[in-house]
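ok trying this again, last paste got cut off
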Amino acid sequence: MTKVSLAAAKPRIKMTADDHERLSRLAASAMDRAPEVVSFLSYELDRVQIVRGGAAQGDFARMGSRVDFRDNSTGRMQSVTLVYPGEADIEQGKVSILTPIGAALIGLSEGQSIDWATRTGETRRLTVLAVREAAFA
């Protein structure tokens, strides 16, 4: 197993100002509970391009977005909704931003790929296939 290098080339990611502010506060408050995931999320927050206004409606993974992606290691395709920790429900496909996959997906656009570390420390690569607004019941 290999660890993800934060120095490795990363795709450009985008985020709304509101998501950035809220996720920054969440990361600061959750460092003791999930230090490795929060460290990765914080790194992503530091390098993000903030989008405002109409540009915020672009096709990039935001909180509440439904993201279809492929695990390039296994070929398995999944569809998840990015949510805050209290809203997570794996049976409904709602994945917390404080999980390795949630932190990896945030800010990515269709066609982009990123390396991420599983909870066991294995490096995996995923590719975003589609991003759309989630329909919550």
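PB: full thing came through this time. The helical segments are 17-30, 35-47, 100-105.
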